Amino acid sequence: MPQYFGKLPTTEQPWTSLPSVQSVKELENHIYFNCGSQTLVINAVAPNLIRVRMSPTGTLSHPRSWAVTQEEDWPAVELTVQQHPDSTEIITDRMRVAVAHHPCRLTCFDRQDQPFAQDIDPGISWRQGAVANWKQIEAGEHFYGFGERTGLLDQRSQVRTNWTTDALDYDILTDEMYQAIPFFMALRPGLGYGIFFNTTFWSQFDLGASQPGVWSMETRGGELDYYIIYGPEPAEILATYTQLTGRMPMPPKWALGYHQCRWSYDSETEVRELAQTFRDRRIPCDVIHLDIDYMRGYRVFTWSPKRFPDAAQLIAELRENGFKTVTIIDPGVKYEPEGDYPVFDEGKDGDYFVRNPDGSIFHGYVWPDKAVFPDFLKPDVRQWWGDWHKTLTDIGVAGIWNDMNEPAIENRPFGDEGHKIWFPLDALQGPPEDRATHLEVHNLYGQMMAKSCYQGLRQHRSNQRSFVLTRSGFAGIQRWSSVWMGDNQSLWEHLEMSLPMLCNMGLSGVAFVGCDIGGFAGNATAELFARWMQVGMLYPLMRAHSALHTARHEPWVFGDRVERICRDYIELRYQLLPYLYSLFWESATTGTPILRPLLYHFPNEPQTYQIQDQVMLGPSLMAAPVYRPGVQCRAVYLPSGVWYNWWTGEQHQGPGYILADAPLERMPLFVPAGAIIPMGPVMQYTDERPLDSLTVRVWPVTGLETLHKTFVLYEDDGQTLDYETGSQGMTTYTLQQSARELVFNISPRTGNWTPPPREVVIEVLGFGEQRFMDDGGDRQLRFLL
């Protein structure tokens, strides 16, 4: 009871529910329900995508496009509206929405009349400063996505708040995180749907935590606005959601390689030694990140004249040795009047910084001490900030790492006893004609910084793809940036938590994601680092990182045995690049995650719903990592079908569990029957040489009557934006297997990109291989079984 802890009891303000429907009107695929002083509007954006809006005042606000692509770009939907005495039904060829009139309640049905997203008392309701909606949790329903989330994969029985926060020292119980993505999918056998809560205000999902069997969504915005996406499976939900909020561009191929980072490699000498050690030890690496200490007194867009006296020469030497350079940029601009610091001077003169409600420039404390902050809601500020990146790209910087952009601010200088703050919630941001309070746009700060960075790099890098990495973002961040999971720790628990975190990001439309390998804060043990490098090989973004005053976390610092393990798994990553690059193309075109929980491919096997310690890298490689010290074997669940042990070729029949060997040198890996995985040679960096040899590994099943599988190998130059205008090559591999023979068909390569001359090896496990020179034509190879 509250009084036990010295607190006075409180009474929450009651909710007012949406009353009965008084009239219904249809206008251009929008159905308006007049509920007296309130208005409910439902429109079909696509056959499986319904938008629901309700204004307690009866007047809907002008829609903004911060996260959502314009609805008018979608083709018109054929729908039927049926009026009944006490209800209205809106029917497309994929789903049906029934709106009861007394009181006003909404229920969706699939074509088999299974209900989902069903309103339950008190339905759509509001009170001062908030609007909410309550819905029923169906039997066997589980919840995934929600952006960046700690804890388990399934978020049922949790409360999940969307408010970007510097989540330093987060753990399994942390709610608010660096990212705020108000999207989730609900899944049960035979049916799945997604909910995108289209609000940038503070919002929250309660997944049965307060009331078992009921989930709710609440926002502090003035109206309810959400999209319902019918699946029925995760792939289609994500395809529609990412069509709504956008998909990622193709990254440069080098960004798929191994990245090395530390806070900080703080001198040219140290960076040169690091790069040379990678090459001397023959450990592949593509990227070196420079943290805040490369700057002059933490002033953004500067270089330390003592520690980095000739940054252009350093970056050129790194480039000659096969390394790309990525530099960190924070939003805090050092407050330095009369300091001849042009970033501050230009920002002040142009009125580019966030202001307090009284008109004064807001300031807080970050790395450069007293700092001011660009208002990225203003298009001219985004242009100005993007243009400043030219000072970095002109000397060869290939990518930008955006940090501290939740925004992370303190009220006193770093090192003093202070507390975290953010801009005043009533501070106005954005251009004069479209102002919004910080209460509305807080969650967009990191998003708009990343957008500014992306657009600046695209403008100033002369047809070269760039790499952008951000800590904070909102729904649709995949259009502008990759994302890492912030400041994790060198703990076994954080290693275990990394895969469900990344999988839920992928199920939220953000595919290019990673966690700091080895843990950022604290000291990894040799065993933990080895296991983490194995898991990190699966991360779409493979970056090791460590904090100031911690032990070093490079692959060679833990002794010869761990160095060999690191080398082996980084080399495997590079061998898998043709497969992995094709997965990135699939994600860029359809929104498909790269790292996937088992439920993504097996949504009708409830056993997969709670499995978070196994993942799929694309459709053809399943990993069962080790997450605890001293473990030498582990239970592995194999879904339906035939599976191969990657290392031994041993065959297993699913569904069911097996016990897999897992000595320190081995992460259990499995491949489903029919898998087609193109692989390349080991390289020390991704463009060390052209892909002059290609091995396509195929896994058949002896005795299986029929099998039909396909995989599309995607290729381009890996560097330029020419792929956007058709400079691509796609080769479709098709595997057909009968009881007597296996036929491997290769379609003619499409697109106008041509790879270098190369030999292709088709290697069918257990049945030999065939070789040929790749001429881009069609080919049929037969293997007798």
TrEMBL record:
Domain Glycoside hydrolase family 31 N-terminal: 40-206
Pfam families named among the record's database cross-references: DUF5110, Gal_mutarotas_2, Glyco_hydro_31_2nd, Glyco_hydro_31_3rd
Residue spans crossing the bilayer: none
Every DUF5110 domain range: 694-766
UniProt KW keywords: Glycosidase, Hydrolase
Keyword NADP: no
One annotated GO molecular function: hydrolase activity
Protein's UniProt keywords contain Acyltransferase: no
Residues covered by the Glycoside hydrolase family 31 TIM barrel domain: 249-583
Family indicated by similarity: Belongs to the glycosyl hydrolase 31 family.
Protein name: Glycoside hydrolase family 31 protein
Species of the source: Laspinema palackyanum D2a
Species lineage: Bacteria, Bacillati, Cyanobacteriota, Cyanophyceae, Oscillatoriophycideae
